[in-house]
User: Fold these one by one.
Assistant:
Number 1:
Amino acid sequence: MKKQITIYASILFLLFTAAIIILQFMRLDLFHQWFPAESAQGTPVETMSTEENPTEGEELQVYVHKNDTPLSKDAVENLEYAMDYAKVSYQEITKKEMEELTPSPYNVLVLGGEHSKEWPYEEIRSFVEKGGRLYIASRFINADWNELLGLEDVEDFLDDIYGLTFEKEVFPGYMDLGEDSQLFSHSIADVELAESAEVYISAEDHPILWANSYGEGKVMFWNTSSVTEKSSRGLMLQALSFLPPTFVSSQAGIKVMHIDDFPSPVPSGTTDVIQRDYDLTVEDFYSEVWWEDMKRIGEGEDVIYTGYLIGTYQDTMDMTAEDLIETRRFPMLYFGRKVLKEDGEIGLHGYNHQSLVTADEPIDPEYGYRPWQNQGEMEESLNRVNELFDYYFKEKGVHSYVPPSNVLNETGVRALHEVFPELEAVSGLYTGDKETGAFLQEYEPNSEFPSIYHFPRISSGYGETDEERFVQIDAIANFGVFAHFIHPDDVLDPYRSGDSGWPEMRQSYEDMLHYIHDHYTHLKGMRQTDATKKMKQYQASVIDVTYQDDQVVVQGENLLSPSTILVRVNSGSLETGSFDYGVVESLGESGTLYQVTLNQPYAEIKKKDEAL
């Protein structure tokens, strides 16, 4: 009996000792170092090319002419960006070359508003009458053009017109914006339309976009100054697509979701809204409620999260790398590993939440941020947070960066490149106010450091406003990218949450993502580094389109595999279903728009024989 007791005591002692060793093992973070968090490997970008010879038929020719006036120049350049992103080729022409255009339903002349008296009107009128297409990219007044443009009468300009009402479906998903919306402020011509004009969009009962048939040709007219806004690019491209008999544009098919300030220091205690709905501390709410909901929604709606860690919210550099490592154990080990486990990745938001700008670089003073003394001080802070990153996510590396408050300037970019030579993407904003220091971007390499790619975010928040939804749809209508970001602590902030609790915010967030997932099935959820690679390859690809009476022939080099194109058919319709080259599906309710998934780099997309 005594021998048995001795054995049991020895076993208990060994178990107790083992427990202590395991606790010390985990306390010293050896566990996560020996068993690092695993995440999915980067997805390779697959491509396809054709060896087919060019096919006979017509090619779409878009001829662009810009005036020097700001409205004309900015509106036409906005359309040029839209065409570049959608891989629709165009060429700029002079006034003299306008006089020599060949009338064809696949020849489109694009003009900006204003200075219409300088254009060769009679030649343009004849071009349209004999079958050419005319696209007016912004409003102007010239009574001599009334018949061509589909006007009975025109008065003076009207300013401060707001909102948008869709009289026809321009692209599925656009919603009407009320007169109280500030997203678009229109300066328009006060016009009376002729019976031949067909209104697509209006605002406050005034026509904003209309088409007019003239002779054998067609005119599309933008009666607004708001076409200089980036958030109108998708609209401008889709308006262009209604002019020729058939129109093909390309889609990148990308969906990314950023979580800024995640992982980050977690506030202690609780807040009124968390206490009201859950009776939990902030830390427990994040871990037991918020993250579990985010994970469930992400899995259900094909969203992969890229989190952007931050070391401290202090505006000083008091915390050493060792301090950060010691005090950020919970968010790094718990939330960081959770993101990686869901096939996500961790990028960098900063050592602290101070934007990387010096005193002589612009930033909105309302942020109350402390400017950095110089590039060297920035680099020191980045090195400290890099040690934190490397300690908990060893061998992952920093490949993407989001600037705090989306503010960044040249000095900060140089500091980032110096400390993180492997950095692939910097994500600021697609739209915003540059005067406040916002880092506004196009999808393109950095001019000074081409290894860094600019991948701007298009929208933000938990899906509460029509304006945010609108800019999402516009980017999808243009080039097929959904790039969104949120903050975990939005629910803690009465201003950012609109006094809503997490149940309401969660529902609107899920509704937003469900709509995107359900209506734009070609957008694939991916991590930021994979999205960067895919977007770069999409832009590098070459696509050729030939239009024939009974089919559209598409062929290309280094196309994404699979690729997605949109086909607008204004004369006839497409055969839908599965084919050797891929799948053709009707998109939206207009009956003219199709989504085509190409699994081969050469496709003969047949039109229906309407006589059958």
Note: The radius of gyration is 28 Å.
Number 2:
Amino acid sequence: MVKKFVYGTPFETEAVVKKIPSSEGNPDYGTFSTENGFSFTTKLADDDMVFGLGEANRGINKRGFLYISDCADDPNHVESKTSLYAAHNFIIISGKTHVGFFFDYPGTLRFDIGYTTSDTMTVSCENADLYVYMITGDSDLDIVKQFRGIIGRSYIAPKFAFGYGQSRWGYKTEDDFRTVVKKYRENHVPLDMVYMDIDYMQDYKDFTVNEERFPDFEGFVQDMKKEKIHLVPIIDAGVKVEEGYDIYEEGCEKGYFCRREDGSYFEATVWPGWTHFPDVLNADARKWFGDKYDVLVSKGIDAFWNDMNEPSIFYSQEGLADFKETAKKYVEGDPEVPHYMVGGKLQALANNHEDYKRFYHNVNGEQVRHDKVHNLFGYNMTRSAGEAFERISPDKRILMFSRSSYIGMHRYGGIWTGDNCSWWSHILLNLKMMPSLNMCGFLYTGADLGGFGANTTRDLLLRWLALGVFTPLMRNHAALGTREQEPYQFEHIEDFRNVIGVRYRLVPYLYSEYMKAALNDDMYFKPLAFVYPDDKLARNTEDQLMIGNEIMIAPVYTQNAIGRYVYLPEEMMFVKFLGNGNMFQEVLPKGIHYVEVALNEVPLFIRKGCAIPVADFAESVPDIKEESIRMVGYEGASYERYTDDGVSRI
């Protein structure tokens, strides 16, 4: 059952699409207060677990730490970080009873989940203007399904988006991209997408292409499609301030950029230099900006990723002036301005919360200060694209995913988990985020395989790819200046061919389970706790996940490991896709087992009485041959496979 409670005058985020009547009073769970802002407090029993929060740090069970919903461009995802790129304010308290809460509040929201006091959870925010949805049910999964039912169907990506993608910040010219595709194809490593980071643009201007580097962009797009490759250009949130740039001039003329309190357009620097931010919370501006995607769709592009949309700010006019004044005083010997203050000011220039108080959105004629609705920017930027795609491409799906998000954006696109690093711990972080994101409606998800920042290693990349085989978004992406991490940069490329090839062998199953999850408000990834709630060991196992109804995954995420321990909550069939293209199959009883997994192998476990469809190796999604599909698993088991053309809107 879902109940809705209204506090103050909430901002309409449109995260919830189902009409739910308001209930009187407070929820009959925990303690609610509106004396100093808003707070919800409840005691946690020793065995209670807390799930949810989508893209958040640490484990699947969120107990024991502080999480702050405050979309932040922060690439250093260490354990101490309390905010990442998204704000997903949905939690489930799981114990003797099961209850879920969605705090529909677009500003900064704190979740103290046994951090200050180990047996107490407090959710709080500055202003008591929000909707609180309380959901009760028979199980954690029941609560998730009810929540998903009120927030609307999850985004459905085209089938080609379930192939493998290669990306790197640093591919600049047409020849760079052609070389990547050539090396993949000549080494017979599967590939469906190549991503275009900011260097394809003219001076980092949205919806432009550098004509010197891409003299015939439309022809290039078509050449890539002949190779069965989809190009995926990036779109950033900031619009360059430049006379003669049509989008800048049109946005200024129509009043579609965010403004300061005095009515002037707010300016901040991002990649293009000084920029304005499109006011995507304004319905007219949102439509205007979304329609600009047709500039590239009309040239044959059918996939995009949105970035820098927290929005990220390098520095503002006001912030720079403040820094200059501090530095001047220091240089002149002002004893009140020590050297550390200058350094602190410099560090604080980027993504400064004071800047988020300096600009406003026009929402239905009312000026709304950005920091009050900060977490909605990325959501509405991607919404602008998703709504436009329905007009631009009414019959065919377009791939879209974003960095920043809020619940509600899940209807318009997926997300990738941002600027991770080439650290073994980030493989595990990737794994643990997946079911939490599914709880909040985000199904098309994945991380930068191999790590975006720092330098990867051959073994780390292979192990991470073996996890990426199962994530709907499977993309290898790295930062400028880091070690090149395309598979052909390493010895024994056949190992990469095999691991990535397993993805294509499993697409018939993975795509089917994704579609079932999207169409039935279900989860693609589930924690073991959701499937085996009465099994204490399963409930506390966080490095293994269920996918769909049939399989469990347990990736290796430890350097130099030859395998790992796995807990089977029931009898399962251990399946390894071997380096020579064959499969190893062994039925294992319930219990703890050590399984060996070589670097060029991909393991999975099929539940008792189940089987899954597996195809032959293919180098692109359209090359997967239907007639090659056979069932792997328990003899006599059946499987109901979802199929469609992979393109038409549903």
Note: The radius of gyration is 25 Å.
Number 3:
Amino acid sequence: MTIFGPDFPFSYDEWLNHPAGIGTLPEEALGKEVAVIGGGIAGLVAAYELMRLGLRPVVYEAERLGGRLRSEKFRLTTDTTDNDDAAYSEVIAELGGMRFPVSSTSFYHYLRLLGLRTEPFPNPLTPAAGSTVIDLGGETWYAESLADLPALFAEVAEAWDAALEREFGLSGLQDAIRERDAHRLKSLWNQIVADWDERSFYEFVAQADEFNGLSYRHREVFGQVGFGTGGWDSDFANSMLEILRVVVTECDSDQELVVGGVEQLPQGLWHREVDDSAYWPKGTSLASLHDPSPGTLSPVDHDGEPGQSRRGTPRGAVAALHRGEDGRIAVTESTGDVRTYDAVLATCQSWLLTTEIDCAESLFSQDMWMALDRTRYMQSSKTFVMVDRPFWKDRDPKTGQETMSMTLTDRLTRGTYLFDNGPDKPGVICLTYSWMSDALKMLPYPADKRAELAINALEKIYPEVDIRSHIIAEPVTVSWESDPYFLGAFKGALPGHYRYNHRMYGHFMQQDMPAEERGIFLAGDSISFTPAWAEGAVQTALNSVWGILNHFGGTSHPKNPGPGELYPELGPVELPA
């Protein structure tokens, strides 16, 4: 299936792959600088495409390229004789995005561009996981398929599927996506938006006839075990529209991991040389545009003097955004350096425009500020360990079961995932992946304490398994909400937030805005209708590319209209104020 809506059913993959290209700039705009704030996937996709169009992206990044696509290496603690062996050095922990639905066709466009490989992600009850253990209320079940679990679990799954079909006509929505019937999809979805904007995920589950005929225990199990990727009770407060988008676009199923780590994608876009730019010579890359070495295409200050010496690295953290008397937007770096631009793209977390960045209020309308500040972020915590080998695949001679499994539980760990790099090669255990209040339980503790708490919980499920004896590296952990440049893992819209999302998502359409609000664009997870999935960040980045192209007087090819040309026809329905 292709991601094709449902809020804006525009075929981004077709637009990207069309032989006519995504647009053309007037000659006088070629080489002009555009500030890109944030070096995550949205910022780097946008910067890469802007470079191809012939503009000069100037990327600002406060920490490290990749944003929440972060692949972290381990520090070995054991005295192995082959510490430098690739078998150890290439093992990583995915601290941010780690599973990517194959329906995310724009995201996969860039994976293919860089030649990156993917493999099935070991989600519960999938062949990639091998086996799954569900541990709830002190009871433990081992399964290699849904059929191995008690009837209660099948009843929950059947109730969920039936409720979605009856209330939303799920199969009809998905048929429209598969057939790329944008107008039918939009017609069906628009009515759902009007009916469900102010209703929560839990309200749907609690009031659906299919669940009402079952016990409270069924709803409780649904919250703990969920569908596709695991338990979903952390999302019960979210808008049902947000959950429905995940299901309609099959984001919750058929997911892959990136072999070697997904951070290769943003890093690859940073270093990838282009040979099809309308302006830059063959071999130009984003890195080379940020390299002030002699003989390179280095950025220069506006008085013609060379910029700071950074040898292929982005500029630093942004401290302020203001519009100058000449109408250009001034970007002040944390060092005090000030540069001005005709266009600025902000891909950072939306709250940063009122916390880390002194952003002039006049750059956005008060309605837009309301939307940016009301955006709600979800907490997330992960803790990983490297182990000597995938010992969990060992079979118990008495039961024939695997020693350890992908685990869903109501205990502290919530979700535990096992990553196998091959027989007798070091593997990785994501000891715990939790959200919201479960993630906050881990927030005060360092990595060692988090790992100890997680292992203690897992030992209650696997009393015969000595996990500690297999650990060969220091634990790696993350709590995105504790980082001042992220303040959370991803957006999670509450009931009634659709209007806010509508304002932010459509902000790239600036033709009717007052002049003082034009020229600054938004992209990223904060802006997407499908937060928590990299595809949403990529799509909003591509919207901003079209907006910036239009801002500089550029046009799309008549045979390949972009998101801006089709937005008046296919854009998200606007609800009354």
Note: Confidence is low (pLDDT under 50) at residues 294-310.
